[in-house]
Structures are given as C-alpha cells and as structure tokens.
Specification:
CATH topology: Rossmann fold
Protein name: 5'-methylthioadenosine nucleosidase
Helix content: 25-40%
Mean pLDDT: 97
Number of domains: 1
Pfam families: PNP_UDP_1 (PF01048)
Oligomer: single chain
InterPro entries: MTAN, Nucleoside_phosphorylase_d, Nucleoside_phosphorylase_sf
Strand order of the largest sheet: 5-9-8-6-10
Number of helices: 7
Bound molecules: adenine
C-alpha cells in the first residue's frame, strides 16, 4: 500500500480521472483556508490516493496553472498527506519533430526548466535544474507508451530564448509544472512519475491557445485512462 499523490493543475484535466474513481467533483476539501488548492481523497487498489488540484485564482477567476501553485501542491502532498509516490498528471505541448502527436500520453525521463536563465557561473545549471526520473522507462513499457524529455516554463507561448534552450535539451514536451514539481520531490527523494498528454503541437501551424482548448477534452480523457492503468500497476514496481 502506498500514499499516492496525484498533482494536477486544472479541473478539466482531472475530470475523467474523478469520473473513473466515482468521485463527486463538488466534494473537494480545501488544503488551507487561505490557499486555492483542493484535494480529493480516496482509496483505489489498496492505495491511499490524494488528488490535489491547483484550484482557481481568487483575483482572476481562472485556473492556477504554472510552477508556484504546483510547488505548493507538492509540498502539501508530502508534508500533510505523507505521499511516498507522486504522480504529476497533466497536459503538455508536444514537438512533432520528435514524434509528438495530439492526444498521445507519455511518461517523462528528464525534467528541465527553459525560462530560468542565470548567466552566472554555477547558476546556469541551477537554473535549468535537469533531473532524471529512472522509473519513467519501466512504467512506459508497462503502459505501452513512450517516454521523453519535458521542458517547463511559466508561459504558454515560447519566446526565442525559451526555444533555444528547449531545442538544446531535445525536449519532446513543453509544460508549465513538471520541473518545479521535480525540484520539490528531489529535495525529499520521493519517486515521481510524470504522465503528460499532448493538447497542442508547439512546432505546428495552429495557434497554441486554440489548439489547447480544441484538444483539452480528448487529451484529458486519454490521460485519465492511463492514470487508472498506472495506479493499478504501482504495486508491480
Ligand atoms: N500545456 C499544454 N500545452 C502547453 C504548451 N504549449 N506550453 C506549456 N504548457 C502547455
């Protein structure tokens, strides 16, 4: 039995998972009176599962995407819910030149940041903070999916500077949370698996934000299916 925490940014990404686990979306608990994150707790396949979602921004009434909320969710998972296995599940942009396709789900072997550029000796590697996740390949094989490198930044679009770093790291995927979550779990040495479903092709012809919303439902459904399969497999590691 494990204490598994599933860290997710958006309600719509989590909807299919909640449906599969027969969880009522209206029955979330808050993690703190001041913070917008919410948690759903359940048991599945003898594991304790906490699904932590970043919640809504109190000022802008949109979902709390990005690295800062993801860090709070992760630290809460560890300190309040004793998580000993962390899954970051969400959507990502994909690069078609590396084989990414809309709706395809991947595990992640390497996380890296592309928007923490600090050109001071020693700080360059701290900024990019590349971390390896050895369990990704094993789970990719068990799930029958591929694995790749994800690059994280706090913007949905991609500046020329971001693009240079993403390219130099040969990233297959681009998101707004993974490397920040990896930084936290690295401090605590907690095994972390990233499951990412592609909503948009970053190097394609369509505007990212349009493609993102057009494919969010499909990508989230595929993500939910693989998440259930993954949780059912966790005993087998
Ligand atoms: N999440 C989904 N698509 C994304 C993209 N293109 N960039 C960053 N995060 C994303």
């Amino acid at each position: 039995m494990k204490n598994i925490a599933v860290i997710m940014a958006m309600d719509s990404e989590a909807k299919p998972l909640l449906e599969k686990l027969k969880i009522n979306p209206d029955q979330a608990e808050k993690i703190d009176d001041h913070l917008p994150m919410k948690v759903y707790k359940t048991q599945y396949h003898q594991h304790n599962i906490s699904i932590i979602i970043s919640g809504e921004c109190k000022r802008n009434k949109v979902q709390n995407v990005g690295t800062a909320p993801a860090v709070i969710s992760t630290i809460t998972a560890i300190k309040d819910f004793n998580a000993d296995f962390i899954i970051n599940a969400g959507t990502a942009g994909g690069f078609k030149k590396r084989g990414a396709d809309i709706g395809k789900v991947y595990t992640v072997e390497t996380t890296v940041f592309h928007d923490r550029r600090i050109p001071i000796p020693g700080y360059q590697d701290y900024g990019t903070y590349k971390s390896q996740h050895d369990i990704a390949k094993k789970f990719a094989t068990l799930l029958g999916i591929e694995t790749g490198i994800i690059s994280t930044g706090d913007s949905l679009d991609m500046s020329p500077e971001d693009e240079k770093l993403i390219e130099s790291n040969l990233a297959l995927l681009k998101d707004m949370e993974a490397a920040a979550i990896a930084w936290v779990t690295d401090q605590y040495s907690i095994p972390t698996l990233f499951l990412k479903s592609v909503t948009d092709i970053v190097d394609g012809e369509h505007p990212t934000e349009e493609e993102f919303f057009a494919n969010l439902k499909l990508a989230s459904e595929n993500l939910g299916e693989k998440l259930i399969e993954l949780i059912e497999l966790i005993e087998k590691i």
